[in-house]
Structure formats: structure tokens, C-alpha cells
Amino acid sequence: MPAWAYHPYRLFWQVADLLFPPRCVGCGRLGERWCAACQAQVPRLGGSSLCPACGYPLPAADEMCPTCSQGPPRWGFDEARAWAFYEGMMARVIRALKYRRRFGLGETLARALAVWARDLPWPPGCLVPVPLAPARRRARGYNQVSLVARPLAWLLKMPYCPQALQRRDGPTQVGLDWRARWHNVRRAFHAAPRVRGRIVWLVDDVMTTGATLHAAALALKRAGARAVYALTWARVPRRISPAARPTRSRSSPHVVLEPRTSSYPRREVAHVRSPR
Predict the structure, then answer these.
(1) d(CA 217, CA 231)
(2) What is the pLDDT along the chain (276 residues), one digit of tens a residue?
(3) Following CA atoms 249, 256, 138, 191 in sequence, which dihedral angle do they give, to the nearest 10 degrees?
(4) SS3 readout for the chain
(5) What does the alpha-carbon distance between residue 121 and residue 77 come to, in Å, rounded to a whole number?
(6) 86-90 contacts: CB < 8 A, separation 24 or more?
(7) Domain spans of the chain?
């Protein structure tokens, strides 16, 4: 859809706010969906000290995070970046949009993300939201990622391609441990041929282990995408040992799971075994 479509979209929400005044999702202030004071409380990620592969904050520049530094990073995506940590105010906003049907927050969050995303050193491409499984989409009635990705695409003046990626039915990722998350999304996605030769900005709400983004990016690459950059609203802080690091061979995109030991406490690591 053309970039000018954002203006009537925003006008719709401005009229809706006049007819049905919202309350701030953070402080409850009448007349604002998410006030400036509450937005200032978001624990944002930024600066130059980010892992060049997965985007996790680093104590010093020109390094990689412990997860990616164990070897050449083999994420399905080329790079990943997140706007904020998934905690405090940011977690409250995402839960409201995801579970409380606060649809207007999609436009508000898109405006905040656009200011940040314009400074990312990525070439322009098409925006593809991570889809819900069909059963979950029917049960919830909407995909919260699309509520942000569509106006974000308009603001960034990029094509919006929600049909470029499809997801098969399967258990939700919520509540699963590291190993189960990687296994749950194995071969869960299918990408359309329309992404062949294109640069894709893959958009999701939260990056936890990176399993969903990794699997979705692999599907896009199998369909011929030239590059895949993963953009999320939030990133779960690492409070335990680093998340599983994916690796893959050119001969096979299948992800298998094995325990791996290193100088860190034992954890589960995803890597690829070529077919025999």
C-alpha cells in the first residue's frame, strides 16, 4: 500500500480517540493511549555496543556476545535488532496490545519504532510480519505484530508483505523452555516465491531465544530472499546462561537439538546435522 495511506489511518485513530477517549496504558491518564512520560520509562537498547549478529547489548564495543562469539554466527537472519528490553513498561504495552485488544497502541508504537528504525544501517526492503499459526489467529482474532508492522511500513515507505510468510499450526511458544522453543518452530514456516531476490525486514514483537526469528528467516532464505534483517519491539534480558546459538550447514536447514558444554553452565544449543 502507498505511504500516504498512513495519514488516513492515523486520522481514524485520532477521531476514535476523540469519540472514545483512551487511558494511558502505563499511568491511566485520560486522553492518551501511551503518554510521553510513560514512553520515557521504556528500557531502550541502543548505542554502538551491540552484538553485530544478534543485537544484544555488550559491555564493550567491537566484540560479540557470549552466544555468538563461540564460533561464526549462523543465525538464519543476517542481523537482529530490538528497540527495548522486554520488562517494565515495555512488557506492559506488549501485553496490552497482545491480550487486552488495545489496538490503538499499534499505531502509537509504530510511530516510536519508526524514529529508531530509520537510523538502522540496513538497506531498504519489504516488511514481513511474523505470522501466527492459523488456529491461534482464529482464536485471538488478530495478529498483534501486524498492528504495528503495517503502519511501520507506511512510515518507513517500504512495501508491506503480510502474505510472504505463512505458519503451520503448532503449540504456542509461551511457557516453553529453550530446547522446546527450538524444536517447536522447526520447519514451522513457509515463504512465498515473491521474496526471491528481495531484502526482507522480518518484524516480530519479542525476541526470547531467537528460535522463531531463526526459523522464519530460514524459510525466507529457502524461498530466495537475498537478505533477512530481524526487527523486534523488545528483547528478553538474559538472566541465565546465554540462549542457544543456531548453526546450519548449506546442505540442510533442518534444526536439531543437542546439549553442549563449554565454559558456561550447561545449556541447550541448536545446530544442524546434515542428512545422511
Answers:
(1) 12
(2) 566 788 888 889 899 999 999 999 999 999 999 999 999 999 888 766 888 888 888 876 557 787 777 655 578 999 999 999 999 999 999 999 999 999 999 999 999 999 999 999 999 999 999 999 888 889 899 999 999 999 999 999 999 999 999 988 766 656 666 666 667 677 789 999 999 999 999 999 999 888 899 999 999 999 999 999 999 999 998 764 444 444 443 333 333 333 233 222 233 333 333 333
(3) 10
(4) CCHHHHHHHHHHHHHHHHHCCCECCCCCCECCCCCHHHHCCCCECCCCCECCCCCCECCCCCCCCCCHHHCCCCCCCCEEEEEEECCHHHHHHHHHHHHCCCCHHHHHHHHHHHHHHCCCCCCCCEEEECCCCHHHHHHHCCCHHHHHHHHHHHHHCCCECHHHEEECCCCCCCCCCHHHHHHHCCCCEEECHHHCCCEEEEEEEEECCCHHHHHHHHHHHHCCCCEEEEEEEEECCCCCCCCCCCCCECCECCEEEEEECCCCCCEEEEEECCCC
(5) 15
(6) 86/206, 86/208, 86/234, 86/235, 86/236, 86/237, 87/43, 87/237, 88/41, 88/42, 88/43, 89/26, 89/38, 89/39, 89/41, 89/42, 89/43, 90/42, 90/43, 90/233, 90/234
(7) 9-272
User: In the structure grid, which three cell numbers stand for residue 270, read together?
Assistant: 541448536
